[in-house]
Amino acid sequence: MYPRPFEYLAAQSLDDAIRELSNSDYGKVLSGGMSLIPMMKLRLLSPDLVVDIGRVEGLGGINDTGTGVEVGALVRHAETAVSPMLPEALRNAAAWTGDVQVRNRGTTCGALAHADMAADQTAAVLALGGVMLVRGQDGAREIPAEEFFVDALTSALGPAEVLVAVRIPRTEGGSAYRKLGRRGGHADFAVAGAAAWVEMTDGVVSDARVALTGVGLRAELARVTADALVGTDGSPVAVENAASLVDQDVPMIEDLFGSVEYKAHLGKVMARRAILAAVEAA
Amino acid sequence: MLVSMTINGSLVDADVEPRTLLVHFIREHAGLLGTQIGCDTSSCGACTVLWDGKTVKSCAVLAVQADGAEITTIEGLATEGSLHPVQEGFWERHGLQCGFCTPGMIMSAVGLLDVVPEPTEDQIRHAIDGNLCRCTGYHNIVRAIEFASARIRGVEPDPPDWLEK
């Protein structure tokens, strides 16, 4: 299967990429290509122009910048999965993205920009309070994760914008990601996945963020659950109570992998497991 | 576009359309037919090759992306007529029936053993998570990779299951 014909540009710089994207009718950014190329082969997407940022200098690497740890656009899932600089939730989510071959090639930022409804790292970045660092024709802007995932396969990126890095704020506390994959265990996209970040002060949960993926059209914060968790002692009973509230504000939809009832049930189970692990690590 | 890459140690160049996939470059321009096209949707892993030493699914990569890369295919494993330990393992432990998934399976095993020379059964099963086999039920593939791991480490492989029982 071949994609439809397109023009290909191996960008030499970010400016180069942004200029060509803004001059095209329908341009797409290619980093790892693990979602883009299969979609182009299936002709779900047929861009006129593919701008490959794979050779642009300065987009790789995981760097501590003082205000957080930045994961560059060309950092592959396999690198994210083992980086000691990154919180557990994001490392778990990267380690369970795709399969070995996909993790060797696909990028964390690519997965975020692709915004699949059942991606793993989207939920982790939401729970960790991640910030997207974006460059476009009008310069740089920052988009908080909770404003970045707009709809199924739709992010807040403009057509000529590039996700340059995601910044994970320096956070005390513990985090974790748990999922059930479509092929059982952790394999494949999430039927349901939950990421949690918890901060404990003197034995009390002082702050928390919980996010779900796979259950709706986009990764979503479970604010009611996080609010219910704050002020408790993080005990299994408190966590169970908070996790049981995920369907209060996270929209659930039926898909090929389960009914709304099933998704809500799994969402609660995964949230409970992720929160318990995060409390333990905090 | 002019694309040039090293495949199994030989430089291959060709003028290709940007939409040419790496697997087509390998099969049609380099003439190496060991790398299979299976599902063509990056699920089955039959097209797995090594790119700078790491496994990738060559049906999900454009040839132009791999310009300048070092690619190793199944044809690049055996040296001077002697099988690579993983190939030997698949032979000795009956790791294939129809053989269609075998080149990709072997490349994934090579990628694993490069990083983890003595994997547990669990690690082996996770490492071939991106490769589908419709014949064997994976059991003998896992045994074949264990055989190769022993060979690479210079250890006597366990006897085959069918002799133990």
How would you portray this structure in words?
The complex is a heterodimer of chains A (about 280) and B (about 160). Chain A has helices at about 15-25, 35-40, 75-80, 90-95, 100-105, 110-115, 120-125, 145-150, 225-230, 235-245, 245-250, 260-280; strands at about 5-10, 25-30, 50, 60-65, 70, 130-135, 140-145, 150, 155, 160-170, 175-180, 190-200, 205-215, 220. With about 280 residues, chain A is of the alpha+beta class. In chain A, strands 4-5-10-6-7 form a five-stranded antiparallel β-sheet. A four-stranded antiparallel β-sheet of chain A has the order 11-12-13-14, sandwiched between helices. In chain A, strands 1-3-2 form a three-stranded parallel β-sheet, covered by helices on one side. In chain A, helix 4 (about 90-95) runs antiparallel to helix 7 and helix 9 runs antiparallel to helix 10. Chain A is globular, with a radius of gyration of 19 Å. Chain B is of the alpha+beta class and about 160 residues long. Chain B is about 35% helix and about 15% strand. Chain B has six helices and five strands, in the order ββαβββααααα. Chain B has helices spanning about 20-30, 85-90, 100-115, 120-125, 140-155, 160-165, and strands spanning about 1-5, 10-15, 50, 55, 70. In chain B, a hairpin with a 2-residue loop joins strand 1 and strand 2. The radius of gyration of chain B is 16 Å and the shape is elongated. The mean pLDDT of chain B is about 95. Classes of the chains: A alpha+beta (about 280), B alpha+beta (about 160).
User: Stretches of chain B where pLDDT falls below 50 for ≥5 residues?
Assistant: none
- Mean of residue pLDDT values of chain A: 97
Instruction: Identify the overall geometry of chain B.
Output: elongated
- The order of strands across the largest sheet of chain A is 4-5-10-6-7
Largest interface: A-B, 29 and 31 residues
Q: N- to C-terminal separation of chain A?
A: 48 Å
Number of helical segments of chain B? 6
Characterize the main sheet of chain A. 5 strands, antiparallel
Approximate strand percentage of chain B: 5-15%
Query: Given the helix and strand composition of chain A, which structural class is it?
Result: alpha+beta
Helix content of chain B: 25-40%
Measured as a percent range, the helix fraction of chain A is 25-40%
Number of strands of chain A: 14
